[in-house]
Amino acid sequence: LCGSERRTLNFQDGPFEVVTCSDCGLVYVTPRLVGEVLREVYNEDYWKSDNPKIRGYADYARESALYLRTFEKRMALVRKWLPEKARVLDVGCAAGYFLQVIKRHGHDVHGVELSPAIAKEAIAALGKERIHVGTLDDAVAAMDYQPASFDLITLWDVIEHVPDPQSVLRKIRELIKPGGHLLLETQNVASRWARLLGPRWHHYKHHEHLYHFTPATITRLLADCGFAVRQVGSAYAGKYVSFGFLSERAGRLGTIPGLLAKPFALLKWANLYVNPHDEIIVVADPA
Question: Which of 62, 241, 267, 283 lies 20 to 30 Å (CA to CA) from residue 219?
């Protein structure tokens, strides 16, 4: 974030260290995966992982209904920042669940997804003319995205995965229309749960979560990239999750919580809405 090499060690996990910059307070992982090694993280196994504690999802596609319900509920926030018939770009759109929801509300939707393994689901639902498989830079050329051409650009749980977040945010700023907005969701490493759980916090997944932001550090990052932050909060950052997901998460808290939660695993596809307030949604405008 600031370029400083001075840092303090928070904890070590195998070959990875989670550190805090001594100058700007950014929490990040070192070493960080890059290039083709990082791309390979998001292969077919990422979306149906046999060890989601380390990387990926237990079964992303099987929980599609929960993602759709989550984004439908989140429209209470999103619609506040949208004109009618808006042009919307979702960067890191995965299977396109947010785009499917917002399309039903009458908007013109487009998506970019790095992982071919999951982008095929978005293409099947929305069409290849709306979804680009690759990076945002690639998409600008391949899909002929023009400067100042989107009313809203979203990054749902994406920025922490990006090796060079400044580059992506500056490109996004170029693409947003005057009066348009960026909506960004990311984990909050300053949250109560992150502080309480320490290394057991479930967002510490070192292969994929390269950076861990706080409201202060994400605001600084956005300002450095030419944005003015309008709103930061966790009120809309909850998700519908399965009981199986909750049981698996409880197991990370220790033996006793894991045993107490085991009966819920039998109801693993039952679900409820949960908001532990350890993620934040940021609304920002080009400054």
Answer: 241
